[in-house]
Amino acid sequence: MTDALAQEVTELDANNGLKKTARREVAEALSRSVADTYTLFASTQGLHWNVQGPLFYSVHKMTEEQYQDMFEAIDDLAERIRTLGFPAPATLSEMAALSAIDELDAGGDVRAQIEQLIAGNERLAQGMRDAVEKAEALNDVKTADLLTERLGVHEENAWMLRATIAE
Ligand SMILES: [Fe+2]
Predict the structure, then answer these.
(1) Confidence (pLDDT) at 7
(2) Is residue 10 part of a domain?
(3) Is residue 14 one of the residues assigned to a domain?
(4) How many angstroms is it from 140 CA to the middle of ligand 1?
(5) Is the pLDDT of residue 167 over 90?
(6) How far is the CA of 42 from the centre of ligand 1 (A)?
């Protein structure tokens, strides 16, 4: 009798009209977006917990909305990778290795930490824009649509964070 739990995570077939090489390339771009979103999610929640001072309430509430949205998005992006037939990054060390976004400097003051989140959101939006270009070139319109929606959210997050600390 085979052990039903002894299963490896493997590549799966996905006959959606895209070549396997194209699906793999898009899946790799999506994996970077998952890892970047995961890193920014953790940093945003970290500021949510530790913020103090005159900006406490607004930053505490804003970061909560942002990290909750990212939590959902990570799931959508990772499941798109599986839909394309490839394994999704699944550990914190994989996320860290794949991500181009710096972690929050927990020792910084609140303004510096908000500036780090702005930079992270903008870096992520740029990375997603590159991924959209790749997905469109490979005719994966669904992934391009998903990432286009996400990059708009990160541009908006950057605006809201920047407006919070504007003089
Ligand atoms: Fe909370």
Answers:
(1) 65
(2) no
(3) no
(4) 36
(5) no
(6) 12
